[in-house]
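Instructor's aside before we start: the two examples that follow are unrelated to each other. I chose them only because their records fit on one page, so don't look for a connection. First example below.
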Amino acid sequence: MSAVTFNAVASQSSVNQGISQSQWLANPSGALTRRGRLTRTLVVASLTVLLLAGFAAASGAGDQSVHATSYVTVVVPAGASLWSVATAYADGDVQAMVEAIREANNLPGYDVVAGARLKLPIQ
């Protein structure tokens, strides 16, 4: 006849899942380790970025409204300078009008030739 013996201590212990009791009790308070706090911080930060990006996309942030600029074409009279043409058509800041004319016509400098056609932005 065969006899079966049980270890009384082994039958009362919990299931061993591959970690020793000293490792399991290494942090008995449940507080996070440095690595755990870093992981938690990175997860929270990435979720915050995703949430903010979602709200920004839903609110239409980044949409640019481009208004079309209207232009009038003028012929530069003899003896006129870019400043005098800008003065004739500007409603306020002449320097801003000079720069707008240069940008609209891709002028490298401030010199204009008599008879040249210039696009002037309408303000």
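Example two begins here.
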Amino acid sequence: MEEERERFYSRLATIPGMRPMPSVGNWVLVTVDDPGDFARKVNRRMTPGLVTVPRHVDGAVRVPVKTPKDNEEVFRAMREVMEKRLGALALEQLGVHEADDLEAEAI
């Protein structure tokens, strides 16, 4: 399990906006902005309660280490959520809002 945790940790480290923390056991702690919102969005794509927000670690989510196949599915869901967040942030910085984009597409 330790080998799989290290592999999963390395994969998570490739996602911009996420910072895995050294972890022990069958979990990886990952720092993210707005961890409650992040966990909710990942859990909607996966299994409710899979990604949790630990009470005593500010700005982090706790992700279980499972089989390589399961971890890859979690990795993809986390990457997708983070890409959407970063894309929305970039648009916001450019002064474009998602509602404006939807209106423009409807016209």
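The beta strands are 19-21, 27-31, 60-64.
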